[in-house]
Write a structure and sequence with these properties.
single chain; mainly beta; Beta-galactosidase, Chain A, domain 5; nine-stranded antiparallel β-sheet; eight-stranded antiparallel β-sheet; 2 helices
């Protein structure tokens, strides 16, 4: 069944409904400016389509909607760490149940805010108190903001990412610019490298760009568009495409699905950000399409 056309189990407003797929509740937005869906499992954006545009966000056709794991594609929330800095990989936020805090709409678009707080289960994994608010602003453009607040009585540090998967026509025709030239190559165990001003794809790519411009540009000649990814509160941009061999090894990716996706992630890398009690930090990605 197409998850976008599931029957509503609750109507929250003219533009916002709730549906359910395999036990996972999805906040669905249908507005004249854009359509979107957010899984409460993971606080995970699973689709976003501006009016009169192709899908901007990529979701694997074999994505597994299972509360024990993250969904492949969309915009997973990696928090309170990025990568394999702890267990589970990329942190627990993308496997946690978020709650709907508020939703608002007007003629220009829809805002949906979710929240996640520490619990006995999260403190067993990461022994700190916190409050996270994840805000989605849907319209002709998309803005996703993750605000993390230290509600503990001691300092703590975190890293993370808004792990955005973008839909492209053909990865072989994609050019990425403005990501900078300095990167850590995860294919080479994090080796520090210098690259070109333009990135094209001919093999598996997994890089942490350490001096990106605020706006990274994905030029997609097959779909005749550019996706502008503007990030704030970050110190790196991760760019990833698994290519075929790794795609084949993943149960939740089709063998050739690497051809239509690329990740450009707003990332807090390395030692990350330290918050004192009561302090907050916001990590943002702003996504716009241009011809």
């Amino acid at each position: 069944m197409d998850i976008r056309n599931l029957p509503a189990i609750a109507v929250l407003s003219d533009a916002v409904t709730v549906c359910e797929f395999q036990g996972i509740k999805i906040i669905r937005v249908i507005h004249e400016t854009a359509e979107a869906g957010i899984s409460l499992h993971g606080g995970h954006l699973i689709w976003y389509k501006p009016a009169d545009e192709d899908d901007v966000i990529w979701l694997s056709e074999k994505a597994e909607f299972d509360t024990s794991k993250a969904i492949r594609g969309g915009v997973p929330v990696c928090w309170p760490w990025f990568g394999k800095a702890g267990t589970p990989s990329h942190g627990f936020a993308r496997n946690s149940q978020w709650s709907l805090k508020e939703h608002r709409e007007n003629e220009y678009g829809v805002i949906v805010a979710l929240e996640l707080e520490d619990s006995e289960a999260t403190r067993e994994i990461w022994p700190h108190k916190f409050h996270n608010q994840l805000t989605f602003e849907f319209g002709p453009q998309l803005k996703v903001s993750l605000t993390s607040t230290n509600t503990d009585d001691a300092d703590w540090s975190f890293s993370g990412a808004l792990h955005s998967y973008f839909h492209v026509g053909d990865i072989k025709d994609v050019v990425i610019t403005d990501m900078g030239q300095s990167y850590l190559d995860n294919i080479q165990n994090g080796k520090a490298c210098q690259g070109d001003e333009k990135l094209t794809f001919t093999q598996e790519t997994d890089r942490v760009y350490t001096q990106p411009q605020d706006t990274v540009t994905i030029s997609d000649s097959k779909l005749s568009r550019k996706i502008l990814v503007t990030n704030e509160g970050h110190n790196a941009a991760v760019i990833w495409n698994p290519w075929q061999e790794l795609s084949i090894s993943m149960a939740d990716m089709a063998d050739n699905s690497f051809e239509t996706m690329v990740c450009v992630e707003s990332t807090i890398h390395g030692e990350g950000v330290t918050l004192v009690p009561g302090e907050s930090h916001t990590l943002t990605t702003h996504i716009a399409v241009s011809k």
